[in-house]
Amino acid sequence: RQRLLYAPIVGASEYACMCAVGMAATARGESLDPWHPYFCKHGSVITCRNHRHNNIRDALASSLRRLDRRDVVIEPSMGSRRGPSGQLEACRGDVAFRATDGGAQTVVDVTVAEVASRSYLEDRSHCNENVPSLARERVKRTLYAGPDIRQPPGGLLLLSLESTGRLGPASKECLRQIFPPINRADRFEPDTMQPSRERSHLLSRIS
Description:
By secondary structure, the protein is of the alpha+beta class. Helix content is 36%, strand content 17%. It contains 6 helices and 6 strands; from the N terminus they run ααβββββααβαα. The chain has a 4-stranded mixed sheet with strand order 1-4-5-6. The protein has a two-stranded antiparallel ribbon with strand order 2-3. The N and C termini lie close together (11 Å).
């Protein structure tokens, strides 16, 4: 089954990853989880994770354009932030848009939490809801709170997902703002139904 626009990696069970988990599995003569390439940070495997994130970002941008949102931009510049070495580096959101001509710019950041990550399992993610997505949301809010970050006038929205397709808590407000709820009195008007249809289309693809 697809998860977040991706199917399991074909041949992953025969893939020999040089990370600690992969080497331990090889030593035991066991096969790797077919989803392993999506959360492993070792070497070129990270490309799979980046593609998954970017596909979700692009699907969101396509939905915004179909809704006639203005000035839809992928990876808008938001100033700079301090990198691991302490030097300033460029900071970019994932998708920026304006609801109407002349409206305030809103920026959306897409983040995907891998539920099988060891750090989340140590926090008992298998017993408690939203542990991975809440952790990612905290990281993102800290990242965008830096003194050298330009805050978008329309606000920052987080589209957080877990690797199983589950939406994180912040995603509810994000989707509510992008796809406004339908007024009951206008529910049969074609134009008012479009955001609801587009929301359903997006969610059917990514979750």
